[in-house]
Structure formats: C-alpha cells, structure tokens
Design brief:
By secondary structure, the chain is mainly β. The protein has a domain of about 210 residues: Sandwich (Immunoglobulin-like), CATH 2.60.40. It is about 5% helix and about 50% strand. It is built from 6 helices and 45 strands. The strands form 4 sheets. The chain has a 26-stranded antiparallel β-sheet that branches. β20 and β21 form a beta hairpin. It is globular, with a radius of gyration of 27 Å.
Length: about 750
C-alpha cells in the first residue's frame, strides 16, 4: 500500500508540469499583469471618507476595472479608482467609485453582508504571495464593513470563505453627487506577513447591482471564479514592512441563563464565566486559548428532511472552530471520508442514543505560517465527563502540517487523537482511544486548469489492525469549454475516525465526471452546458458486490441577470443491507434487508435567490420513482427585503412518499421562516422559526445583538422547543418541550 501511495504522489507531482506542456489557453489574465504602488507617509491619516490629506494627492492611482460579468472584458460602467498608502502601523486605502446614489442598494446594515445583493467594493490581500490563502476586506457606500479569510486558493467560491473572521479596522464612506468614497485604515497587525516584505499580491472586485455586474481590477479568465487566487496583481510598498506589533487580546464573557426542561421537569438559573485569549507570534502565527467556552449566541442549526440511509453533516457555526479551519478540515474526502469534523467535539450521545451537549472545559489552537512554504495548525480541546450518561472525559487533538510545493500545490500531514483521560468501567476496549495518521497531496496548477487531491489515511484503535485505512484520488481539468474529473476512493471496513465524518465504511467508490459548457453570444443567456456524473459503489468485503450506482445527467445554465437553472435526471440502483424506512415513521414496516431497487427521478430548479432584487426565490421540483414506490418533492425559498433594515425569508420543503402496502407512505413537511432587522450598524435582531413533522418539533430561536464597542457584544437569546403530534395522525398540537433565555456579554480588550 505504501508503494501505491508513492505512485499517486509522483503522478500528482508530474501533473503540475503537464498543463504548460500540452495545453495553451492564453487569456487576458496572462497577457496583462496589474500593479499598485503603496506610498509611504509619516503624516496622520484619518479614515473619514473625504481624502483631503495632502498625501492622497501624491499617491498613485490604480484604475482600469473591467466587467467580468455579464459582459466579460468590457469596460466597467461604474469606474473605480484605488489609492494606497502606509506607515509603520497602518495600511490606508482610499477608493472612489462612480455611481448614481439613487441606484445604490444596501441589503443589510449588519457587518459581513452578502456581496451579491449590495453595492460594494472589496480587496483581496495575498500577503505571503502563495496564491493559496488571503485576507479579504471590503465595504459599501454607507461604510458597512465586511472581512473574511480566503483559503484553498479561492477556486470554489462556495467553499473557500471564512466569514466569521472579524478584526478591528476603521472605515468611513461618504456619498457625493455622482460617486462615493470609502476610506479604510487597517492595522498591519490584522494581517500575517513576513517582516521586511516589499510586495503582496492583490485583487479587487466591485459589485454594481443596477447593472447586475461584477467588475474586477485584476484579470481573471472567464471560466474561473473571480475569487481564484491564481490570478491577481501586485502591490509594492515604498518602504519594507517592519515587525508587526504583537497583538494580545482577551475576550471574557459572562452569561446568565434561565431554563425549563418540561420533559424532565427540570428548571433553574445559572451564571457562567469564561473567555478567549489571542496572541500574535512573529507576524504570522496566532495562539488562541479558550476557557469554559459558551456558544449560546450561535444561531441554531437549520433543520433538514433526511430521506437517505446515512447521517447528514451540518455546518460548523462556532467561531473558535471555524477560524483557520481549512488547515484542519480539508483532509480526505469531505462527502464520504472526512477524518476531522469539528462538530464531534462538544457533542456526545446519551444512553438512548440521542445527541446531547458535552461540555468543553478548555482548548487551544495554534495556527499560521512558520515560513513562506510551511503552515502549521494545532488544536486541542478537553471535554468534561458525564457519568449519568456514561460519557467519558476526553482529550481531542489534531496536528496539521502543510508544505507548499511547486507553484500552488501542497502536501499536508495530519495526526488526530481522541482519548479518554482516565479509565471508565463503561468504556469498551475499542472506545479507549482512536487515532488517525494521514498524508494528503493537493494539486493546483499555476493556471488553475488542473486541480486534484490524493490521500492515504490510517486509523489506530485498540483492537483493530487491518482494513483500517482510507485512500482516494481525484484529478480535475477545467478549461473554458471542457471539464472532466477522474475520482475514486476506498474506505476500509475497520477505518475509524471518532472526530471525523465517515459516511460509511467498507466501500470502493468511483465518481468520474465530464461536462461541456457553451458561451453563446446572447443578450440574456450567459452560459449553459451539460454534464454526466456516474457514481458506482462496491463492497470489497462482500466479493465486490454492487451496493449503489447513480448516473446523474444534468443541463444547467446561467442568465446575464444572475439567475440560474438546471434540469437533472438520476438513474439509481440501491441494494439494502439493512432494514430501512425512508419516511422514519413510528411502528411501520421497513423495506427489508437484502433487497434491491432500480428507480429514476427528475429534477427541475430555477434559482434567483442570490440576485440583488428585493424579492428573490429558488424553486425546485423533483418527481419519479423512489425505491419500490414514488416520490414528489417541492423545495421553495422566498426572500423579501426592505433595504436596508429588514429582510425576511421562508423555506418550505414538501416530500410525498408513496410506497406499496404494507410499507409506509408519508407527507413530510418542513417550514422555516426567518426575519432579520438591522436597526443600525450595531444593533441587530434575528428570528428563526422551524417546524418539521418528521422530527415532530416546532422551534423558535430569536437573538438580539448590540455591538456596543468594536467586536464587543451584548446578546439576548430566547429559545423555545415544542413537541407536535406525529404526522400519521395529521394533528398539530404544540406541547412545550423546553425553553431558555440567555443574556450574554462579551468584551474584546486589546493590549
């Protein structure tokens, strides 16, 4: 197996050289290299949106924005100019955007607003010049800020952002007759960089909602995401950057809670204390510490309807785990064999198999750059024992090392350890510890046409020593028209990662893909294309018996308005190894084990949800065969906003499952309305209501947040959960399950 892994790595190394040798696609991005000069100043600069300091008149101007979407390569209809200056402690940015003030839109006054639905300008700073990770800073015409981290080279706009990253920087914007100015004052200690550096890579993009346009300063090929870090300009500092002042922050909290558990007949009041600490080390490393962390202010999970045989992974929302999460969470295969899934920490199962909170006592995270080519991540969390539910105190740790190779590729190593901190009689032999050791090679060619992942992971448990590994290979090619992927993975029967998300073990999976995209000269249609994705799964330990296959055929397109559509056909085969009831009805007869099913269904989707319109929507309709019966599913999402202070949305899912007697049929309903008020830039109120008859639950989560000082908040959070009668009786009678009220204060103190 070691030889096999070596072959994969050597092959992946070789692929780095293939694109330039065999594929030539000279684009606009390769023909023009953009540059910005950053003037040094000794004078005081105030971020007030006026640019009246004399130094601004001496600073060089970066201009030449072009329209990336919908009219690629055309001059921007709203030209923008950028000026940059710096001193020993701050980076100053002055931006002028030509625009009609009456046509500008603001979707929210809340920090980290969604860029597609609001006029704004945003800059990307690649401070280590590695085209892999970057800092993103932006604002709109009324001075609402957005900041985030970008990772994985920015190649996938849906999975390359960390919007929980919040730092202290100053911004002010002013609107004039036919333009607006936004001015930023950013402390250098919010960035990570090398001392003595004279150049960063930089990009800038601007959203114009009137023309539904994305305008870029840096040049990006039409078939690549504008966030792709392979395509950026350069910014040159007049004076080399010095050593950043070490940033030390303490963020204590106090949380008062009152609660009632009507199921267990328990009520009480509690007062908790804890907090976080942050320390910047040598410009490039950050040490985070947490003591008795509390996540009561975090928005509750979005409920889903699960018709599959497998557990569904939900996104992490706790900030301590999200920041720099790409270092820890990008190993293996995210869908089938992810060895580290941070939501496993702080959650355990009670004696009835239900998920319950497992208190985190303390933790630390060290993450960042050691040098230009080497990143490190260390995460360690200690959880508390719960003897009533036979939950052991455990130490949960992961060490990740990432080394850049060639232009943008990297090799990553990880070690994961989950271990009980003392002996417990209720623990089985195999529950004492679980460890995973692995290596990943992540391929990204210089022009981003070739990407891939190749990995080998082995787990270690007290009583398992064979069939305890997982490995995978994926190579993708992306040109303007043609895309294809060769992909497969193996997960051994005894492969375990207690801190991971392993969908199922004992499988061999092939998952290729081929697609072709058209770019018509059309005033309404931007692009459209077809793709075919076969998915085939075997069980090696059962003489390679066929377990599942899907053949997914899809036609999808995007309009110049930003709306999108797709038509999908799924041909599917399923072999059930265990009894299974897709409706999860009580006291029903499940589909029997050792049975097989062939079925086909169709899906139609139209998506306007990410447009800048006040009213947006997404509609999805699927229908066809389902196991030995039929399925009719409808998903609706509607959103309406009154800018800039009110946004409302509602998600409605309806699934009608009809199976022949004696198997169960059901009408499954999920309804989730959401309301958000942003009264000012510092005062927000959000409410989420969710009803699921599959879960027999009605819940309410409402949060009031007052940002009374930079990154310092007062939260008032109310939660209510109700039982409802099961769907088989078609009766809706709410019965209170539990409720709680939290008042939490956090204060960010810098030294």
């Amino acid at each position: 197996m070691t030889i096999f892994v070596q072959i994969l790595i050597y092959a992946a190394h070789a692929i780095n050289y293939f694109p330039t040798a065999f594929f030539f696609n000279f684009s606009l991005s390769q023909s023009e290299k953009k540059e910005i000069f950053v003037k040094y100043t000794d004078n005081t600069i105030t971020a007030d949106g006026i640019l009246d300091e004399p130094d601004w008149a001496l600073a060089r101007t970066a201009s030449g924005f072009y329209e990336y979407f919908p009219d690629y390569s055309a001059d921007s209809k709203n030209p923008a100019e950028i000026k940059l200056m710096h001193d020993e402690d701050f980076l100053y940015v002055g931006i002028k955007v030509m625009a009609n003030p009456k046509e500008l839109k603001v979707n929210s006054l809340k920090r980290d607003f969604q860029a597609p639905s609001s006029d704004n300008i945003t800059m990307i700073f690649d401070t280590f010049n590695d085209a892999t990770n970057a800092f993103v800073i932006g604002s709109n015409h009324i001075g609402v800020q957005r900041d985030m981290l970008m990772f994985n080279g920015g190649v996938d706009i849906r999975n390359s952002w960390d919007m929980t990253w919040d730092v202290k920087w100053m911004c002010e914007s002013k609107i004039y007759d036919n333009y607006y100015i936004t001015e930023w004052k950013i402390p250098f200690n919010v960035f990570k960089y090398r001392e003595g550096e004279t150049k960063w890579r930089v990009g800038a993009y601007q959203r114009n909602t009137k023309n539904k346009a994305w305008n870029l300063w840096h040049q990006v090929p039409k078939n690549q995401e504008f966030s792709n870090l392979a395509f950026m300009g350069d910014m040159y500092f007049e004076k080399p950057l010095g050593k950043s002042k070490a940033k030390k922050s303490i963020i204590p909290y106090i949380n008062g809670i009152t609660y009632n558990d009507y199921e267990e007949n328990i009520s009480g009041n509690d007062l908790e204390f804890g907090g976080d600490a942050k320390l910047t080390i040598d410009n490039s490393l950050t040490l985070d510490l947490t003591l008795n962390p509390d996540f009561s202010q975090v928005e509750v999970d979005q409920q889903i309807t699960n018709l599959s045989r497998y557990e569904v992974s939900l996104p992490e929302k706790r900030q301590f785990f999200i920041e720099n999460s790409d270092l820890f969470a990008s190993f293996g295969d995210k869908r089938d064999a992810n060895p580290f899934f941070s939501r496993r920490i702080g959650i355990a199962k009670d004696l009835d198999g239900n998920n319950i909170q497992n208190k985190i006592l303390a933790g630390l995270r060290l993450s960042g750059k050691i040098n230009s080519d080497f990143r490190i991540g260390i995460l360690n969390m200690q959880t508390e024992e719960d003897l009533d539910n036979e939950i052991a105190a455990t130490n949960n740790a992961i060490v990740a090392l990432q080394h850049k190779v060639f232009n943008r590729s990297n090799i990553s190593f990880m070690f994961i350890n989950r271990q009980a901190t003392k002996d417990y009689e209720f623990l089985g032999e195999n529950e004492e510890y679980n460890r995973v050791l692995g290596i990943d090679y992540n391929l990204a060619s210089k022009d981003s046409k070739w990407t891939g992942k190749y990995y080998f992971h082995k787990s270690f448990s007290p009583s398992e020593n064979n069939k305890d590994f997982s490995m995978g290979i994926k190579t993708s090619y992306n040109s303007k028209n043609l895309t294809f992927r060769v992909s497969g993975l193996y997960v051994g029967d005894n492969y375990r990662s207690d801190l991971g998300f392993i969908k199922r073990t004992g499988i061999l999976k092939l998952n290729p893909n081929i697609g072709y995209k058209f770019w018509p000269e059309n005033k309404k249609l931007q692009s459209h294309g077809i793709e075919v994705t076969p998915v085939i799964i075997w069980r090696p330990e059962l003489n390679y018996q066929l377990s599942d296959y899907f053949i997914i055929s899809r036609w999808e397109g995007q309009f110049n308005s930003g709306d999108s559509f797709n038509l999908t056909m799924r041909n599917q085969y399923t072999y059930l190894y265990d009894d299974f009831d897709p409706t999860r009805s009580e006291n029903s007869i499940p589909l029997p084990a050792n049975s097989e099913y062939h079925y086909t269904n169709f899906e139609l989707e139209y998506n306007n949800y990410f447009s800048s319109n006040e009213f947006t929507y997404r509609v999805e309709q699927s229908f066809g065969k389902f196991y030995n019966g039929s399925e009719l599913s409808t998903e609706l999402m509607f959103s309406y906003r009154i800018q800039p202070k009110f946004t409302s949305s509602i998600e409605i899912n309806y699934d009608r499952i009809k199976l022949p007697d004696p198997y169960p049929s059901a009408d499954i309903i999920l309804i989730a309305p959401r309301f958000e008020f942003t009264f000012t830039k510092n005062l927000y109120w959000a409410t989420l209501v969710q009803y699921s008859n599959q879960r027999e639950n009605l819940s309410l989560n409402t949060r009031l947040q007052w940002r009374f000082a930079p990154l310092s908040d007062l939260f008032l959070v109310y939660n209510d959960n109700y039982y409802t009668e099961d769907r088989d009786h078609s009766i809706f009678i709410p019965r209170v399950k539990n409720r709680s009220l939290n008042l939490k204060l956090t204060y960010w103190l810098d030294f």
